[in-house]
Design brief:
The chain contains five helices and five strands. Helix 3 (87-98) packs parallel to helix 5. A five-stranded parallel β-sheet has the order 3-2-1-4-5, with helices on both faces. 42% of the residues lie in helices and 23% in strands.
Length: 146
C-alpha cells in the first residue's frame, strides 16, 4: 500500500478517521493525501448563525492543512487537497487520479433514515470506490449528568 486518501470535514468522526489513516500509513509506509471539500450547497440558516468552516474556501483549506500537519508531525509524507462540490464525487475522482490504494472516511452515524434524507457520503464512496474503503464511526458522545 503506497497511497491512502482521507476525507475530512473537521468533525469528531473525521478526527477519528485521521487517527486510523495515520496508523495505516505508519504500518504500511504509505503517504497520506488529505481532502476537504467546500460545500457547494450550504444549508439554509438565519443570518445570526455562523458559517461552518466547510462553507468557505478559507475554512476548508484550514481543515485540510491542520489534518495534514498532524500527520506530518508523525513523520508521514502528506499532501493536502481542497475541492468544491459533492464530497463523495470529489473523493472518488481524487482516488482515481492518484491511483490510491485505500480510502479512509468518517461517518456521522446518521443511520438509514438520516442517510436517505441527507445522503451519505460514506455510503456513496463505499458503493463506487475502486479500492478498499475504511469507514470510521463517530465517537460516542459522553452523557452529561443532569
Amino acid at each position: 500500500m503506497k497511497t491512502i486518501i482521507l476525507a475530512t470535514d473537521g468533525s469528531p468522526a473525521a478526527k477519528e478517521a485521521l487517527a486510523v489513516a495515520e496508523q495505516l500509513c505508519l504500518d504500511a509506509g504509505a503517504s497520506l493525501h488529505v481532502l476537504a471539500v467546500t460545500l457547494a450547497m450550504p444549508p439554509v440558516r438565519s443570518a445570526s448563525v455562523d458559517l461552518l468552516d466547510l462553507e468557505t474556501p478559507a475554512g476548508t483549506r484550514r481543515i485540510a492543512v491542520e489534518a495534514a500537519a498532524h500527520a506530518r508531525a508523525l513523520g508521514i509524507p502528506t499532501a493536502w487537497h481542497v475541492a468544491e462540490g459533492d464530497t463523495a464525487t470529489q473523493l472518488l475522482d481524487l482516488s482515481d487520479r492518484l491511483e490510491a490504494d485505500h480510502i479512509v472516511i468518517g461517518s456521522r452515524g446518521l443511520g438509514n433514515v438520516g442517510g436517505l434524507l441527507l445522503g451519505s457520503v460514506s455510503r456513496k464512496v463505499v458503493r463506487h470506490a475502486r479500492v478498499p474503503v475504511t469507514v470510521v464511526k463517530a465517537p460516542e458522545r459522553a452523557e452529561t449528568a443532569a
